[in-house]
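Bumping with the actual sequence this time:
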Amino acid sequence: MNIAEDVRIKKATYVRDYIIRFLFTDGHVSEIDFHPFLSAAGQNPMNSQYLDVMRFRRFKLHRNVDVYWDDWEMCFRFETLYAGKLPRMPKRRSGHTRGAAAKRHIPV
């Protein structure tokens, strides 16, 4: 995605629940629901603490480029916010997968 270097976040607005709307200086708008990211299995406890909506609502902007919470305990880059897509958490492997991996022959 090509984004002009002078584009910044003009405004970030809490919408509801875990949704924030980002308005950019080029007119682009992204609305992101952070709940799937925050509630994903295996999520870092530093991030899952923001399932508390009152805490989630206290986000900040850094130089109108990045969004972050508290003392940078959770943050997202400009490109992610502009695209409107958060990273997916890796799925946990089942015991079956681990067993199959253990049976693989590893050359010595």
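The tokens above came from a reply further down the thread. The radius of gyration is 18 Å.
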